[in-house]
Amino acid sequence: MNILDIDSLTMRFGGLLALADVSFHVARGEILGLIGPNGAGKSTMFNCISGVLRPTEGDMLFEKDGKLMRINGYKPEKMTHFGVARTFQNVRLFSALTVLDNVRIGRHCRTKANFFGAVLRTRSQKEEEQRIVDESMNWLKFVDLEKFVFNTAGSLSYGFQRKLEIARSLATEPRLLLLDEPAAGMNPKETKSLIDLIHKISDLGVTVILIEHDMKLVMSICRRLVVLDHGIKIAEGGPREIRANPKVIEAYLGRGAADA
Amino acid sequence: MNPNLKTTLKYLLLAAVFVYPLFSFANEYVLHVMVLIMIYMVLAMGLNIIPGFCGLLDLGYVGFYGIGAYTAGLLTIHFGLSFWVIVPLAALNGAIWGVLLGAPTLRLTGDYFAIVTFGFSELVVLFLTNEIWLTRGPLGLPGIDPVIIDFSWLSTLIHPQWDWYWEFIGPQPYFYLGLFLVALVYVIMGRMEDSRLGRAWFAIREDSIAASSCGVNLLTYKVIGFAISAAIGAVAGAFLARWTMFLSPDMFKFWESFLILCMVVLGGLGNFKGSLVGAAILIALGEVLRIILPALNLPTETRFLAYGMIMVLMMRFKPMGFFPAIATQSRKNPILIKLKKDLGSS
Amino acid sequence: MIGKTWLKAVMACCLVLVLSTPALAETIRIAVASPFTGALAGYGDNVKAGVTLKVEEINAQGGIDGKQIRVEWMDEQCEPREAATVSARIAQNRNIVGVVGHLCSSAHLAALPNYLRHGVPVIAPTTTAVAISEQSKDRAGNTWAFRVVYRDDYQGEFLAEYVNEVLELKNIAVFYENNDYGIGLKNAFVGKAKDLGLNIVGEEAYVSGASDFNPQLTRLRGRNPDGLFISGYYPEGALIAGQADGLGMQVAKFGADGFDNVDYINLAGSAAENTYLTVPFLADAAEGDAQEFLQNFRERFNREVDWMSANAYDAAGILLEAIAEAGADRAKIREYIASINSPENAYHGIAGMTYFNDVGDTLKPAFVKMVKDGEFVAAPVQFE
Amino acid sequence: MFEQQLINGLTLGMIYALIAVGYTMVYGVIQLINFAHGEIFMLSAFLAVTFITVFGLPIYVVIVLTMGCCALIGVMLDIFAYRPLRQSPRLAALITAIGMSIFLQNLAMIIWGSRPKPFVQDALPAFLRTTALTVGDANISWLQMSIFGTASMLMIALFLIINKTRVGTAMRALSQNRTGAALMGINVNRVISFTFALGSAMGAVAGIMVAIYYNTLYPTMGYVAGVKAFAAAVLGGIGSVPGAMIGGIVLGIAEALGAGYISSLYRDGIAYAVMIAVIIFRPSGILGKSTVEKV
Predict the structure, then answer these.
(1) ipTM of the complex, rounded to two decimals
(2) Closest residue, chain C, to B139 (C-alpha)
(3) How far from chain centre, in Å, is Cα D96?
(4) What is the fold, at CATH topology level, of the domain defined by B30-345?
């Protein structure tokens, strides 16, 4: 069964057509690569799925309790609640807060203590706080950041910040994880550990959509790829097909490259 | 300084302040100023939620202060309600207005929100000034009863000769009541800060888009923050009403909003303990200048000249405030202390 | 963190404590509480001038019992909160035996509880609010708060009668300042005017510190009044007169003591002509002392005297006389002032004679001045 | 009566607009609400009167001289108070602005005294107070005409400076992206100082016009006018110069009509209520561009 169906999605910003009639689907449990040159509309696609933007036309269907439901127009926090988590192209951490606090905030949508619980320090609130810390620690261990629990997020190196952002999004218990260029700015060693991490995430049963420019990384972990160019889907298929697709080559290398 | 010595000294000083009003040499003016400082401590802590925790500029906090004060004053004069009933009612009224103002406007960005809050507080003052049938307007609201603790109904049941009835006269009882109020708000602030609620606020402050992708409903949590902040401001107002026993719309001009904001910034945005220092410094500064300037043979008229200059200098050399660290309360969270220990030992 | 926080807060408080310990000196100290900074500092300056003149006179004569008088100038910006703090400071300092102040009624009302509880005699030169009468006694029934100015209700009614009988205006437009003074005065005037059968064609308000009155005046102009009653102070009053003139409203203007400042004419220029105002004293009608005072005032401050300075001069005079007669003791001073309770033992100041009733209010005759050829002159018809 | 109220409102609005451009330009380049701007407006009135009474200069010279002095004050304000705080949190600069506002206000009070002063009427041409034309039942004086004229002229000049000159281009670049502008070789500090100078000069003209129009000046006059003008700047869309002009005029007219037809007691309240309503329905003001954060 598909976890996400994108059906002729269109996104306009004034006169600019960022996504034009894009359709594809994501199967439950797969790692899908979303690639394309700069300005192709990849991040716009993520912003639509995660609720930051409301698409102009078309449908987005997300699997919930075994049924597909239309998710156009839901706010980001609602999408997180449904089980869609994401990272950002430019890392967006709560940089003045500690690493642990960042992940604890990720637990927000799965917990429910309110003002009165907090002020009266009820038993259930205390238990919940303990659970939040335990679970957050598990996620930090999952991404190998347990050494930095009490450091401020802003003080981490770029690679670790990326990982922390992944840990934070995992803490929301997603079923679909959107990773926006997770390897950008990483050295080869960090990239390698990232590949392992993505595999580990997939092993948990989380479906992953990946935007990435590092073709080696994409080709090595994605079974299937969707290619966008100027808001139009130009190709879809396995890594080998895509690599051979003349349209893709043209999009990346310019007209003429495919003929040569 | 040796940390142990420091702790001891700190508690000694606290104890000294605590017993000071009981001595016969206690200076009533000093006590008066201390009570005033405590009111501003409550206000500054309450305001800190908005610019400090949620990262929104609020230029109209005095509106809620005024709403609380007049709620308390009118309920006292017309219905003779007890202070202990009035405080929750004032808080509730403040919170209601916080929600009414916040719900439609908290989606505004940055300075647009700031100017809306400012406009609101001006409207509150205009209402208090113009609706003479209700508030007596510029004539002021004199003759508000002081705080009364009345357990006579209980004492007569126990013993006919006993009369457990105390009326607050002079600054001493208000000092302790104020201290209680500061402590109460302090504890509430600490507990809120180190909770799911506080973390959601800090997330909004640090990066609202990331916060919403963590599942934080931005508007809801901003409105909650605004309502709580308003309620705290209203409580301070209720205390003020029963302490000064006189209210006038002049007491809630927008300069007060700025003053409280200055306290918050000076103490450190997002650090509610810093707000205590900010309040103490800015109120004490006004009084210190009142005393020092004549001693230096400078005319009274130079008082605010110096005040403004000192404010500028403080910001010049402490642009982040005295205590820039945020979310410090979690350092005392037993769960985290234990975690730290476990991590250290492994 | 918390340690340092508390430490600093406590240290700040201690600093206040240390600095506020009273200094010992061979002087008699009185306090003057008024706005010396802020929007209303101009009025505070008037009070300061009046008191300064009186104190300098006494000190030049050798002070009281050989002790010089020292004045503590207490700035309260006309803000009730500041006034309450200032009054606590005054009350605490036992060396201060009496107070001249406050300037604004709201500040005065906020300060009174402290004075009453500690027993500080206080004489207000300018507070006209009616509500003060109910707040002037302590629990034992002793009056501690006095004022040398008549109440709003008296002036307002007086003015209504004057307008009716002497000026013979029938259609009155009322323009009042939205503060305790303006409203109190206006209410008294309107109430009396209606009783007298005058026609109040419109009531408009403005806020103090405003500078544009055209919208309200335009509205009032539409009602064709033959008189404009401006219930407020001279700075706004002058602008109102000027703007009314600009709008082509050639009507008689009248106000109360709030207008009695030569700046009214300076600011309003030719538009000030044909303005009538009630005042507690008339320079022309004043006795010998007063003429000397006027002369001294002009020399010392290089401006014409206004009613605030005159009242402050008298208020300080009463307080200092009480100190001289009864000694530098708060309770005795209070008793002495309270005993000035009939025309026979009234204090004869430059603003006429002053005596107090049971609640500390004063009963004074009111006079009428008018602006003629760019100067204040006594109105041709006075009124008893 | 309506025409008269409209004229009243328009005059008021022109003055607000002149002050508001000072707020909005500074906000545009450094995102600072310069609360001390109102005090510059106040200082200009006092400086002008001082120049006339002490040095006996003719009014036209005085206006130019005052504009220059206020521009200088604005630049000094920037250099001494705000420049050290460029890298600090925005609120630190805001508090500094409030502190400077208190300082300047009290400084003026100490120098010139706290009582209101009349403007020197003798220095003005006599025809100013006479009626220029009559529209319906409204009289428009030459003074009002010259306020309209001066304000409009200055607005056009400002528009030309911002859109047609090199420094104007630099200002616009700065308001888009300060780092980018610096990388393009723009001397950021100099452009910011120029912005302060320009805004202060505009405020100075407004100050003199208010002092002449109402024939009064006092140390706290900058406070209220400044706050209203700030509201006008926000109403028009803070950061937008044409927005500030429109915001000022809208606010002035709303105030005059509100006071004339609804309630003079709620005069300021009507201005604020209009402002709040506009902002709720147009969250970035009348002409402000809503900035969408790039994710």
Answers:
(1) 0.87
(2) C180
(3) 19
(4) ABC transporter involved in vitamin B12 uptake, BtuC (1.10.3470)
